[in-house]
Amino acid sequence: MRQDGRLQNVLVVDRNERVGGLWINHIPRYSTLQTLKCDWELHGVTIDENEPERRASCDSICRWVQKYVDTFMLQEYIRVNTECVHIAQDGQTKLWTCTLRDVATGHQWDVVSRSVCVCTGTENIPKIAKLPGDATAAMPIVHNISVRSATDLPKDEILIVGAGPSAMDICLEADKAGTKRIYLISRKAHFGIPDNWPIPLGSETKLLRFLFLTLMLPLWLVDLLLTIPTTMWAWWYDVPAWKPVDVYASQDYPFLMRAALLPAIRQGRLVPMIAEIESIDGDEVKLTSGTVLHPQKIVCATGWSYDYKFIPFYRNIEFDDLQLKLFARFMDIDHDGLFFVSIPASFFCVTSAADIASRAILQVLTGDWKRPSDNVIHDYINNVVRKRLALAGLYERELRDLGFVI
């Protein structure tokens, strides 16, 4: 927006004392919390720290965000220690009144805006599934966000529920802490590739987008090209739980096994399994696979719930319904001027996705985009957002089809 020059009045609010969003105070600081560098390097701004392999720590991400702000001189548009507590749209003028609050003093004031971009992500409340028999549990059952360091993990046996990036973090932390037995359970197999496999294009995301967007290969061939090496990898390293059985690589969440965990798997200290908790009885946990465990702690890396109470008309709506109401996950067709910047596809670089959404939003605000009919938009929601949202590259292709310059 700043580079475009047609939108001079831009205000960004962040409730933290400095820019960085959830990475500042809300993300755990355990030592193995890492994310791929390529997911955060954007517009020529790179992560300078020489982190191991391709990953960056939480503190590195925070420094990158500040570096990005300094590089493009954005500080004057940002107000920290400020949160938005309520928004409302005038039915006649279509302008938005946003109630802001100073986090330190509690002082509130209103600003009027033509549009509102919600950039809070989709995940903000820790979610722990209801486990059968959890009321009788003799061991603590916690969300991964409560793990602040290795001292929060037991020495003998731990059960980790989930298989996404946070589960990998906890596995690494438990391995580093010397936990004797680490059980990792998930409901389904995942992308069976280590996180350090050599890809000349730089990242798994770029590879998938190259196959799907640049080469225009059909999805069945993309899936085949990805499934064969992942199956071979899982077979070679004897990680049967990571073989992609009945999983379409391009359409499912591609959680990668951390290569640093392979020694623990080979030694039998880390045991990944496709199973769920069938019952908890005191200090005993029975899995659907028939395995009986006696963990000292259960860590649920089971994601987050969603809270949009500052948007009055979404106060009681389920997130799945909210997602369907959001055009391309960033524009609400029922409320002109309300945008939602989030990750629109599972196999997608975080910053690249936000960048694509921001470019589309700018074209809407500046009038460069001609809105299709409501029927076209609803067809898009039904056929893309509901059914094919996770396909890598489809986000860009469909936006182009709808008239955006992406």
Can you walk me through this structure?
- The chain has helices at 22-25, 58-71, 165-177, 204-214, 219-236, 262-266, 319-325, 350-365, 374-385, 394-401; strands spanning 12-14, 34-36, 55-57, 78-80, 82-89, 96-102, 108-113, 116-118, 125-126, 141-143, 157-161, 181-186, 270-274, 277-281, 284-287, 292-293, 297-300, 304-305, 326-327, 331-332, 338-340.
- The strands form eight sheets. The chain has a five-stranded parallel sheet with strand order 10-17-11-12-13.
- The longest helix is centred in the middle third of the chain and has 18 residues, at 219-236.
- It is globular, with a radius of gyration of 22 Å.
- Helix content is 27%, strand content 20%.
Helix content: 25-40%
What's the mean pLDDT score?
77
Structural class by SSE content: alpha/beta
- The best one-word shape is globular
> In what order do the strands lie side by side in the largest sheet?
10-17-11-12-13
Work out the strand percent: 15-25%
Largest β-sheet summary = 5 strands, parallel
Oligomer: single chain
For the record, give the distance between the C-alpha atoms at the N and C termini, rounded to a whole number. Answer: 15 Å
Low-confidence stretches: 324-328, 388-392
Number of helices: 10
Taking Cα atoms only, what radius of gyration do you get, to the nearest Å?
22 Å
Question: What is the number of beta strands?
Answer: 21
